[in-house]
Design goal:
Blueprint (H helix, E strand, L loop, with lengths): L3 H11 L17 H8 L3 H10 L9 E6 L5 E7 L4 E6 L15 H8 L16 E5 L2 E11 L4 E6 L4 E7 L6 E7 L5 E6 L3 E2 L10 H4 E11 L4 E12 L4 E6 L7 E6 L16 H4 L5 E8 H9 L4 E3 L2 E4 L1 H6 L3 E7 L5 E3 L6 E4 L5 E5 L1 H10 L4 E2 L5 E3 L1 H4 E6 L4 E6 L4 E6 L4 E6 L8 E4 L4 E6 L11 E6 L15 E7 L6 E8 L7 E5 L14 E2 L4 E2 L10 E5 L2 E9 L2 E3 L2 E5 L3 E8 L8 E5 L4 E5 L4 E7 L4 E6 L12 E7 L4
Parallel strand pairs: 12-17, 18-23, 37-40, 39-45
Antiparallel strand pairs: 1-2, 1-33, 2-3, 4-5, 5-6, 6-7, 8-9, 9-11, 10-11, 11-12, 13-14, 14-15, 15-18, 16-17, 19-20, 20-21, 21-24, 22-23, 25-26, 26-27, 27-28, 29-30, 30-31, 31-32, 34-35, 36-37, 37-38, 40-43, 41-42, 41-44, 44-45
Helix pairs in contact: 1-2
Dinuclear copper ion binds next to loops.
């Protein structure tokens, strides 16, 4: 094995501009210097490779949980290798994980995920957030929002499965979510485009009177690992197109900050020749940063100062304004990101149509509210704080600053969209000159190692780029999104890896130390229902397999183990309702089977020890092989059976 110093020496001697000094052609083997020459690699390239390359079997230090955008899923990526390790299906069916093809997961993806009685089978995943304890990622749960259909999902990180989807009963689309308060007391989901609350109807000329936003505080039960909709509540907001949001922590715990960008209350042309929203919503010099005192809101909810809309308790806008549960402060026009610093003493808001990042001071904000020192009121009676009195300062970062993340040394890293840069700057000492790193291209979002906790790690930032025009082989007009791993450990930032993301636009990600996970390798004892975490009443041990017929209802209690299904022969009459109760008797690591019934759109994944249940009507007569879809053993092909559906009248 090459020592690092030898590797760098080789790299150095092969660097420079004179490829002709190259030694013999590298061919299949070759030494480092000749390979560098042949491939046109610089010393910096080789260093980047050494920082990211993982020899087979070496594990990553961090995991990124990235939104899969319109894919409706989560992408799990190792850092620093940038290897994709898993997709977690959330809002749409996914065949390999057997999610949405007849098994128990159908209840989550189709029933819980329904909105207003409509089955919805995709999502626009925006912002994954990990559960926190004391402001640190605790490795237990992951929450994501679906902007398109105003939903929030709960993923259990013991088995990386989506366990719950809650459908927002108030708003039609969300954006500021799913972010958590520092002990995961709440998973917060705030609206994006205003609409009458609860799915009501009103024409656009009633926009100011009847259209509203809302901040929903979903109560999370850490013991059960589920959101408790009964104990959840919301704060009614004006129709200002609320945008990104974040929860205060440490010094600012108890507060939530939400951007907005349509204080003009433009609703587009309205078919009346008014300006399009892009211009209508960009008239005012200032929009409003919403400041919510959620601890005070809790006392109002407890005191019954709410009205119920579509089943959810809502603190009405006038009550929220009068009690200062909701207060505003101006923010430069059309802001986007809203990111609280690790110590909670500042909130950074990105400008979008402004070249600055604005640093708010929550201590000043609290003080102004306590003193009743306001500079005005909005049309809904919400008090507005004086902008200059509420900020620590502003820093010029370039064209289109969006999102901000943090390191362990007091620096902020902001994605600057139009300039295509990551800008590193000191959020305390605003006079220190910012440093920009070009990325490829049009960075939208950004994530940092442990970046949203009270103690970020530094080391890595990932630029989540919207455009990738010349980075990969062209694969047609729909290009992949692109992640670039940035090494921030030294005095200068460096891009050290490019990863294409070809399944949707990732809108955010969080990066957690991998050793915080407590994943299981099997469901123990066999027969655990992953949605109840308990051994299911329908589970069987070896020898208990059976078929129970009750009129037209047939229950099949089946075991699954290398390399057979027992029973492997099921005979029913056309029109019978079949329920298959499947128990994997496996406990060994990685011994997953699949179970698919040909022609019946039935397909589940049987991880070791897992219980699955599939109910369907045998409405098509014929002979239908069922088989294992994972190459699980040398006799995998033999792991099959027959479903015989006898035609009516035969
Ligand atoms: Cu910058 Cu949700 Cu993409 Cu907004 S995040 S779109
Ligand atoms: Cu079990 Cu293939």
């Amino acid at each position: 094995m090459l020592s690092p110093s030898l590797l760098f020496a080789l790299a150095a001697c092969a660097g420079g501009d004179s490829p002709t000094t190259a030694a013999p052609a590298a061919g299949a083997g070759g030494d480092l210097a000749s390979i560098m020459t042949e491939r046109g690699l610089t010393e910096a390239d080789v260093l980047a490779a050494a920082k990211t390359f993982h020899p087979s079997g070496k594990l990553d230090d961090y995991l990124i949980f990235a939104s899969g955008g319109h894919g409706g899923n989560i992408v799990v990526i190792g850092v620093p290798s940038m290897r994709i390790i898993k997709y977690i299906s959330v809002f749409g069916p996914e065949p390999w994980q057997g999610y949405g093809y007849g098994g128990l997961g159908d209840e989550v993806v189709y029933e819980q995920g329904a909105q207003g009685g409509k089955e919805i089978t995709w999502g626009d995943v925006h912002h994954p957030n990990l559960s926190e304890t004391g402001g640190e990622y605790d490795g237990r749960y992951l929450f994501v929002n679906d902007k398109a259909n105003a939903r929030v999902a709960v993923v259990d990180l013991e088995d990386f499965m989506t366990k719950q989807i809650v459908s927002n009963p108030l708003v039609m689309s969300d954006h500021g979510g799913a972010f958590v308060t520092p002990n995961t007391e709440y998973v917060v989901e705030t609206s994006q485009y205003a609409a009458p609350l609860g799915g009501a109807y009103a024409t656009l000329d009633k926009y100011k009177d009847e259209y509203r936003g809302a901040a929903v505080f979903w109560k999370f039960d850490k013991e059960k690992g589920r959101i408790d909709p009964e104990s959840s509540w919301a704060v009614e907001l004006p129709p200002y197109a609320q945008d990104l949001a974040d929860a205060g922590k440490l010094a600012s715990d108890g507060w939530v900050f939400i951007n907005s960008w349509d204080t003009e209350m433009s609703a587009g042309t309205e078919g009346q020749g008014k300006p399009y929203m892009e211009s209508g919503a960009s008239q005012n010099d200032m929009d409003y940063l919403h400041i919510i005192d959620w601890k005070k809101a809790e006392t109002l909810v407890a005191a019954g100062k709410t009205r119920v809309v579509n089943g959810m308790k809502v603190i009405p806008l006038d009550v929220a304004a009068a009690e200062h549960v909701l207060t505003f402060v101006g923010e430069p026009k059309s802001p986007h990101g809203c990111d609280v610093t690790p110590d909670g003493t500042a909130v950074v808001v990105g400008g979008k149509l402004d070249t600055h990042a604005t640093v708010y001071d929550p201590a000043k904000i609290k003080d102004l509210i306590a003193k009743g020192s306001f500079s005005g009121k909005d049309p809904y009676g919400v008090d507005i704080l004086d902008f200059q009195s509420a900020i620590h300062g502003q820093v010029e970062l370039g064209l289109g600053p969006l999102h901000t993340v943090y390191d362990d040394k007091g620096y902020a890293y902001t994605s600057v969209f139009l300039d295509s840069t990551v800008v590193k700057w000191n959020w305390k000492n605003l006079s220190e000159a910012p440093q920009a790193l070009g990325v490829q291209y049009n960075i939208g979002h950004i994530t940092a190692a442990e970046g949203d906790t009270v103690s970020p790690d530094g080391k890595y930032v990932v630029a989540m780029n919207k455009m990738s025009q010349d980075r990969y082989v062209n694969v047609g007009p729909l290009l992949p999104q692109s992640f670039q791993l940035v090494d921030i450990s030294g005095p200068e930032m460096k891009v050290i890896y490019d990863l294409p993301i070809p399944l949707g636009e990732p809108h955010y990600a969080q990066m957690m130390k991998a050793d915080k996970l407590h994943t299981i390798t099997a469901y123990t004892p066999p027969g655990i229902n992953p949605y109840t975490d308990e051994k299911d009443a329908g589970a069987v041990a070896a020898g208990e397999e059976r078929i129970v017929r009750n009129g037209k209802k047939v229950d099949v209690y089946m075991s699954v183990i290398r390399s057979h299904f027992a029973p492997d022969h099921i005979e029913v009459n056309q029109g019978d309702e079949i329920t298959l109760h499947l128990t994997s008797l496996e406990q060994a690591l990685d011994q997953t089977h699949g179970f698919a019934v040909d022609m019946y759109n039935v397909n589940v994944s049987m991880e070791p020890g897992r219980y699955e249940e599939i109910t369907f009507v045998a409405d098509r007569a014929g002979v239908f092989p069922f088989y294992c879809t994972e190459f699980c053993s040398a006799l995998h092909l033999e792991m099959m059976g027959y479903l015989l559906v006898k035609p009516t009248g035969a």
